[in-house]
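Technical note accompanying the year-one report. For the benefit of new consortium partners, we illustrate the data format agreed upon in the data management plan: each record pairs a sequence with a structure-token string. No post-processing was applied to the example shown here.
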Amino acid sequence: MRAFDCAARAFRAARLLCSHPRVLLQKSTTRLPLTENGLLRILGSPARIKEHLPLHDVRDLLKTFCEHSAHQFWPDDISIRDTERFKVEAIRGHQQVTDVFLLGLAVKHGGRFVTLDQRVLSEARILCDYLLWIFIPDPAWMGFFHDDIPVSTSLLRPATTLPALLFLLALAVAAWKLRRRSPGFAFGVAWFLVGHSMESTILPLELVFEHRNYLPMAGLLLGTVCALAPWLALRWPARVRVAVGAALVLACAGLTAQRAVAWGDPLELAMTDAQHHPDSASAQYTAGRAVLIANADQHDQALANAEAERYFARSAELDKNLIAPASALLLLQASQGPVAQSSVADLARRLRHAPNHTQADPFLDMLVRASRETLSLTAADFSTLVEAALGNAHFSAKVRAIVMLNYGSYLHSAGDLQGTVSWMLAADAEDPGNAYCQVNLAAVALQMRDLDRAKQYLDAARRYDKSGIYAQPIDSLQRQLMQ
């Protein structure tokens, strides 16, 4: 039991140390060699921890914890000697050196540096926003995306941070003091704060998400009604209370109907979000995609392309690290005519420094499109982009293998059979046991009339495809093999 308790404490400490500094990157946490080494040094030190663990046990705990998909690893691939990146003369004392170095890593890898205290400060402002949305439900303040809300870096940046903290503190104190005189008010405030205590405090989730306000809102509204009803009963006639209540119900029903209409049309929903959140990169990108999808079958595609291009360009300008808008913009331009090399270089930079593997999806889609239709991008352009993607240490082996496979498919469409085989074999070596790799290799082997090798790849695909996702293409290739 003692060993188990010690391991459990070490694991909890590992969670804290692995997540410091906290860098919010599309719901992810970053690990650095500096913090990993610090973990082993502290938990393995008998001078610091009485029941310390052997270093190999600490390392195994670290490996287990950091296998979680929300974690990323950033190598220490910059130097404090870099005069362009670091202004040493601006550092106020030796204790800031490590903090400045970690901030430099975050900037290089396209991260948004948010420490635990900054997140808590930011959430105080956001909780006040949630309260405002509950009692003044203006649709312009709501929507899917809120990446236009700045992070609080101190009590006075933005200036509303300290007032928000003081307001929430005063609200909690008032609820406690009035718990007997006005239990409805105390219940509503407590319900609201407790309801947000998990997702709107220290957990590294998106800072703002409208839907997480629904459950806390229910208790707050119930408590508000219970608190106000007796007070209003003594001061307002029954007819006035009924009229005001009916007006509120009708107003809320109208706002709900307005939102329901917008949500019923994907294009209108995306346009509304983009209009309400002009500084949200996600909202602008989603609007561009919605325009293209809605006008896919229209005759005047040029107008839709021009409108979507403006949204993609705005999104790429707002967030210099997102792959999606830059990829969509380049793909749109390449389908209409020549593209500037600066656009290729910009996407390559984003691919090389993308903070997590989920951002690779738009580029994978681009490779698929390139294998199916004619684009003005050259083979050298695709080679540059693929090299940048494979140079990203944050992309998992599975993602890297899919990049190789999709690039191989592009080369196949371009008539480069040797390049196709080379890249698909490289994908198989990168991610052994990937059924998708085996399916693609079997298809190429069939085309080359290497039937024995095609059968080997199909057998391997069946063996690896435990969930049956690729059963249909495997069966199709099997029928071709039997002909």
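Partners are asked to follow this layout when depositing records. Residues 22 and 116 are 6 Å apart (CA to CA).
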